Amino acid sequence: MSTIETRGLTAHYGDFQALFGLDVTLRSGETTAIIGANGAGKSTFMKAITGLIKTAPDMIHIDGAPAGGRDAHTIISQGIAMVPEGRRLFPSLSVEENLLIGTHAKRSGPWSLDRVYDVFPVLKERRRLSGTSLSGGQQQMVAIGRALLSNPTTLLCDEISLGLAPVVIEELYRTIAELRSEGLSIVIVEQDVARAVRVADQVYCFMEGRVSLSGAAQDIALEDIRNAYFGI
Amino acid sequence: MDWIATLLQGLLLGGVYALFAIGLSLVFGVMRLVNIAHGDMIVLAGFVSFAVVEVLGLGPILSLAIVLPLFFAFGYVLQLAVLNRTLGDDLLPPMIVTFGLAIVIQNGLLQSFAADSRKLSLGEVETASIALGTDIAVGVYPLIIFATAIVTILALQALFYGTKIGREFRATSDDPEAARLMGINTKRVFAVATGVALVVIGIAGVLMAIRTTFDPLSGPVRLLFAFEAVIIGGLGNIWGTLLGGVTLGLAQAIGGAIDPQFQVMAGHLVFLAILIVRPRGFFPKVAH
Questions:
Q1: Are the CB atoms for A36 and A49 separated by under 8 Å?
Q2: pTM score, whole prediction
């Protein structure tokens, strides 16, 4: 189990500053929803956590130890996995190869290829096809399965419902709920505020690179979220 | 019968160009890195083999046992220490750095070996031929080079599609950032890919050094033919590179049959014609 903490997290794209001193705690075993409008800094936050954007060492702590500025592969090997926005499957790899890439983090744990196929049986039927030839929902299953095969303790999900049919979104969120019940820490970045708050233990609302609202999901009224979301 | 012999000659010449080009194609296919020093690295392999033969008294083929591990290590360290720092959205920095590397290699070789032309000898195999009927004969050594090109491509295909590191090559080539998110150390993957490419360059260099004379400044010509083969076949596609090499070889052989002075020009003209009709080559791997 890992607790991830950011302290005064800032991030830049060249001269453009995207995050302004974020203090966020992603508690072990909990589901955290990060919501906000386009450009609020949600995806940048995820990139900073996973080492895709370089930060100062003490801006990110994993289980109390400084983890900022490390390479992504080092962060991932510490048990953080990401389902990236847009799924980002590898076009030249088959479904099964895409899944197996998840094992390259070399972590042991409960997840195996067979177990992923048990959770998403349709992927077993299509394992020899190119990952990008599947429907959007099936591609999302591959992206989730790929992340799980690294046997993470924290799963970061960036806009997993984007562009998918409601029935598929329901199925994916059922899976997320099952993963949570197994003790996995989950971070959900979502534009669908109501859905995100429904599954979350705690909520952070971002606006223009800052935290505009945070708290336990059960204590926050949707009205407050709406105000924080739009900066009213 | 003359034309059949010409076509056979062109086909086998294509094997030479393909062998020159495979390493270039591999590096571009995995890293989008255009290695301007490619031709000079081929020549460097020839000289290293030459030095091994001179100092240790080994045959050129046996010298591969020293040249290839040495070149793998050279490629690995070069990528890790230098080329990884140049990679990004812009193709220019690695081109400039490898251009500089080409100058360093050329001048280093001039300092070490002088400007004299050299050649390695394989004895009778170089002149041996196999008769196909009464009028046509095929050289044994060109056949060996062509077979080496095919075996090299098959080996690379097995590496890319049958191993874990091959899966990492393809994933990293598709989307380096997503590969990092999967826990892949892309810098190490690139270093291994360059190491493998340098092994192929080592093979090409030693076989070239047996086939023809070479000197410290003969790298750019090899680079030009390799470039043409890679671009005709489609950037980053290794089987396409073989086709590109054969196309170039056939064009030169046919051009040479028409007029010996037209041989090299014919290859360049066919290259330009294909560039106009199919600017991305026959089988481009890169989508954008």
A1: no
A2: 0.90
Length of chain A counted residue by residue: 232
The Cα of A50 is separated from the nearest Cα of chain B by a number of Å equal to: 7
pLDDT per residue over B149-178, tens digit each? 999 999 999 999 999 999 999 999 999 999
Residue B233: inside a domain: yes
Q: Tell me whether residues B173 and A92 touch, CB distance under 8 A.
A: yes
Residues of A with CB below 8 A from B173's CB?
92
User: How many structural domains is chain B composed of?
Assistant: 1
Which residue segment(s) compose the domain that B9 sits in?
2-128+135-277
Does a structural domain hold residue B98? yes
CA atoms in the 13 A half-sphere facing the CB of A117 = 11
CATH code at B33? Answer: 1.10.3470
Q: Does the distance separating the beta carbons of A91 and B174 come in below 8 Å?
A: yes
Q: Is the pLDDT of residue A167 over 50?
A: yes
Per residue in B210-253, pLDDT tens?
999 999 999 999 999 999 999 999 887 889 999 999 999 999 99
Of A124, A178, A116, give the one whose Cα is nearest residue A144: A116
User: Residue A52 has what DSSP assignment?
Assistant: S
Beta strands in chain B (DSSP E): 129-132, 136-139
CA A220 to the chain's CA centroid: 22
A–B CB contacts, 8 A cutoff, strictly below: 64
Which residues of chain B make contact with A52, given a CB cutoff of 8 A?
A: 177, 180-181
Are the Cβ atoms of B173 and A105 closer than 8 angstroms? no
**Predicted complex ipTM:** 0.90
- The answer to whether the CB atoms of A104 and B168 lie below 8 A apart is yes
Is B282 contained in some domain? no
Task: Judge whether B232 and B274 are in contact, CB under 8 Å.
Answer: yes
- What is the rounded end-to-end Cα distance, in angstroms, of chain B? 44
Contact B181 A50 (CB under 8 A): yes
Quote the CA–CA distance of B241 and B38 in Å, as a whole number.
Answer: 15
- Min Cα distance A20 → chain B (Å) is 24
Token pair recorded at residue A26: 């992603």
Q: What is the nearest CA distance from B237 to chain A, expressed in angstroms? A: 12
